[in-house]
């Protein structure tokens, strides 16, 4: 009698569905192996698909990060400094004071002093002790991840891998802002662009689409594959990336500076609004060499899931 009652429950779609939306997502994914009926239910139930971060949940920030992706790709989901704080990014623990660095560069190119003399005379004021509150995500951060190891790497690169179609958070963004910081011998530039599943568009300094550019318009939700390819599929001499998630809503802090460059208050305000609206934003920091065209970013091929983006050289 007990077995009959149990079978009745397990074969009642509504009951199984109501139970599975309260089970951790990884277990639910494995439950697809139980039988064809469960696989069909898990693959087609709107509520279960939302629970598994495959289908969007309408809503507003603060966002809920995908726990499976956060465990598999921790560099993408590092938490920022405490809510409400203005913080500075430093990697390593000692960093150049931005104003000192700018003055040194100016003096070096004025040929008023040689670089060795400059280093000696300004050593005491060059470095600013600061905690490593939110370091860059760099290519080296991938090397210790399970996805880089043996058989796991083959499963990770599989075109039908589950992680590719997953939403990084709920509710998911349909697009988000990236602040690209480029440093070179010729100077420093900071540029906004909006990233979406169907492409990207350059923005003005206010984070708006210029009149001569075509707005991307509403599109599908951004998937994890897009975030991963954005980091690993590019060209140039990239130093790192910082993902900022609106896990605390309007209190999400934006860094004051990255590397040697100060992010001015106007740009920080643009990014604060963007995080509140989209749920995340990205800071991409790079140093561009002046010796020739850039090659693919310094990621080993075992980390790439698509060929590098087309480049304009």
From TrEMBL:
Which Pfam family is one of this chain's hits? F-box
**Highest taxon, organism lineage:** Eukaryota
What InterPro entries does the database record attribute to this sequence?
F-box-like_dom_sf (IPR036047), F-box_dom (IPR001810)
Domain F-box: start-end pairs = 14-46
Q: What is this protein called?
A: F-box domain-containing protein
Give the species this sequence originates from: Bionectria ochroleuca
């Amino acid at each position: 009698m007990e077995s009959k009652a149990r079978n009745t429950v397990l074969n009642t779609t509504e009951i199984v569905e109501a139970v599975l939306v309260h089970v951790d997502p990884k277990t639910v994914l494995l439950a697809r192996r139980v039988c064809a009926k469960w696989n069909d239910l898990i693959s087609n139930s709107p509520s279960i698909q939302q629970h598994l971060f495959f289908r969007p949940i309408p809503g507003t920030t603060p966002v809920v990060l995908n726990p499976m992706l956060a465990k598999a790709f921790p560099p993408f989901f590092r938490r920022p400094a405490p809510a409400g704080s203005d913080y500075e990014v430093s990697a390593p623990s000692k960093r150049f004071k931005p104003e000192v660095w700018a003055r040194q560069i100016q003096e070096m190119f004025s040929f008023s002093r040689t670089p060795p003399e400059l280093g000696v005379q300004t050593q005491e004021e060059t470095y600013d002790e600061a905690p490593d509150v939110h370091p860059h995500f760099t290519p080296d951060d991938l090397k210790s991840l399970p996805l880089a190891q043996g058989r796991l790497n083959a499963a990770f690169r599989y075109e039908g891998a589950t992680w590719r179609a997953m939403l990084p958070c709920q509710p998911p963004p349909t697009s988000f802002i990236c602040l690209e910081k480029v440093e070179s011998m010729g100077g420093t530039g900071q540029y906004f662009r909006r990233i979406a599943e169907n492409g990207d568009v350059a923005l003005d300094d206010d984070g708006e689409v210029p009149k001569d550019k075509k707005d991307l318009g509403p599109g599908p939700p951004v998937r994890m594959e897009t975030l991963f390819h954005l980091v690993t599929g590019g060209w140039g001499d990239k130093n790192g990336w910082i993902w900022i998630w609106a896990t605390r809503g309007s209190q999400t802090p934006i860094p004051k500076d990255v590397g040697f460059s100060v992010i001015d208050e106007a740009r920080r305000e643009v990014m604060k609004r963007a995080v509140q609206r989209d749920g995340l934003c990205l800071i991409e920091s790079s140093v561009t060499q002046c010796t020739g065209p850039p090659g693919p970013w310094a990621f080993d091929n075992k980390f790439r899931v698509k060929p590098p983006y087309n480049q304009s050289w």
